[in-house]
Amino acid sequence: MKVPRIVVVGSVNTDMVIKGERLPGPGETVTGGQFILAAGGKGANQAVAAARLGAEVTLVAKVGRDVFGDQAIENFRREGIRTDCILRDPASATGVALILVDRRGENLISVAAGANHALTPQEIDQVAERIRTADALMLQLEIPLDTVCRAAQIAAAAGVPVILDPAPAAPLPEGLLGHVTYLTPNESEAERLTGIAVTDEVTARRAAERLLAAGARYVIVTLGAKGALVAGKESMALVPTVPVNAVDTTAAGDAFNGGLAWALGSGLALEEAAVRQACLVGALSATRLGAQPSLPTKEELDGFIALHPSRGTNP
User: Fold this and answer.
1) What is the pTM of this model?
2) Of 3, 147, 253, 261, which sits with the fewest C-beta atoms within 10 Å of its C-beta?
3) Residue 125 annotated in active site
């Protein structure tokens, strides 16, 4: 089996998580929660997700010269992720996310970006060769948009597939989608990008059509427990997932994207197997608390597939 080479350009955060009975309303204090300190950040999460599944991963990111930055880099090394493209910023702190999770797994998240917002297009140019020789480039929106655009341009010019997770949702610069091979919004992100409220498969199809018309080669709208809608110029199909008892959905989207990159890089076809595999990775992660702690290894995914043999295809 081929070991895919994946480059992730994105964010690194330290997550401070409180798991409680319910989420507070404005001005309200809810006591009695469980506290967890965990590694996070969408770029970091997706890098770890792909690495645990067996990919060779390089993370391009920026952290502060602080204890959270030290801990993050050491954690990546333990995961087998290449860290030579992680920069240290003496003027900014490592990013921090405050996360509240209720008993149903729903969450509220507030992020202080810190050094993530200091990653520049010029610094992406310095690692351009690493991007050009990858099997896939993964991007998110927790770093500056001009940095995202520059990385996508380099990959697209070299024929490297670009996977863009448009989260947190934000208007995209003109021309960016023309460099994107796989756009992976969830329902709320698809609505933010298109103005179409995505509430079911029909509205997901309408939103996907609009995003395809804007330039993306494929659009994969993740629909939670319903699975994912895979849309291309020629066809659309709903790929089901498996029902799980969700504990924390914080990193489910990152798990999905890491699983997608790994599966595509391993040679699986998009609709028939890769998205199906990514759905299973996301579903399994939602059964555990925390961001990176929830991300499954290949062995754990194999065990999950063994319980649902009709839904999985192993690379």
Assistant:
1) 0.91
2) 3
3) no
